[in-house]
Each structure stands twice: as structure tokens, then as C-alpha cells.
Amino acid sequence: MLCVTVDSPLDGPRNRQNRTPIVYPPGVGHPHYVGITEPPTVVTLDEVRAQVLLWRDIEWLRSLTKMPMLLKGIMNAPDAELALKVGADGVIVSNHGGRCLDTQPATIEALPRVVRQVNGRVPVIVDGGIRRGTDVVKALALGASAVQIGRPYLYGLAVGGAEGVAHVIKVLRQELLLTMAVLGRRTIASIDRSILWE
Hints:
Layout: E1 2-5, H1 15-19, H2 45-51, H3 55-64, E2 69-72, H4 77-85, E3 90-93, H5 107-118, E4 124-126, H6 133-141, E5 146-147, H7 151-183
Parallel strand pairs: 1-2, 2-3, 3-4, 4-5
């Protein structure tokens, strides 16, 4: 499967990371933390023009492979429709944890518009803010086909390695099942908007 991030050709300011005095040992690191003591990079208009990903670039990529392709970073209905027109096999509603563009809405707010536009033609996956089993249920109720998690499994990895990641998944699963039981939903398929207070 090929996952293409379509909305963040450049990193945002990442102010929190720039304020964090983390120094990794030699040979260990994360690209977003490299050079954190340096001032933010100055971006020129020519660099912006060179980095911007266009829909025709996605069409070109689609022409090269039959591999299933997900487009990540779809936050509105018009982009969801364009994603389908260029051959996406699924879309991921993502704001990248709010780290790339200030003032973007939460993904749970953008999700219903994207789901309505896609109208079941391809899976709609959502990430961002999934911390508990109740978050998974809310996303499913709003039409997500699946959810992705980032920070929870990273926290588990940092604290307990592979066992920590497995524990995070176990906790999320247990919370999901408990929430379903409390709501009287026996299956994932039975989770719908009627469980939400709107």
C-alpha cells in the first residue's frame, strides 16, 4: 500500500520542538529534531513553488502503480472529491497533529464533511486526537472506516518498547469494547450517529 501525504510539502514551524532542548546520541535521531538549536529555516518563494504537490503529480504517481494508494491530509469535501478523481483508493483525514498549519480544525470536525462527500466510494480513515476507546467510537459513529493512532503508540514505545506498544493497543481495544457494551452495540457495524448527542 502506498500512502501519500498531500498537504504538507514543507514542515510547519514546529515551535514546541524548537523549544525542546533534546540532544540525541550519535547515530540516533529524528529528522524533525535535527538542528533544533538553529533558527527556523527561511523559505523562498521559489522553494515553495518547487515543493507544492499538485493533483497532476498524484495522477502521474497513480499511473505508475496498481498498488492501493491512500491520500493523507484530506480535510475538506472538495479535496476528497479530487482525491477520488485522481484514483485514490482511500483518504485519510489528518491535520498531522496540528503541527504543520496553525488554526486547522480538529480532524473529528472535518471528518463528517469528508465522509458525506466520499459517500462510501472508498474507505475514509481518520487520525489525530485518538487517545481512548471512546475516541475510536466517536470517529466510527461519524463515518470513519478506521482510525490511526500516532502519539499513544509512541508513548508506549518510549516507555516499554514493543511490549509498551502492545499494551497501548490492548488498552484501546478494551476501552472500545467497554464503550460498545455501555452503548448497547454488539458490533462495529452497529456504531452510528445515533449514539452521539448532536
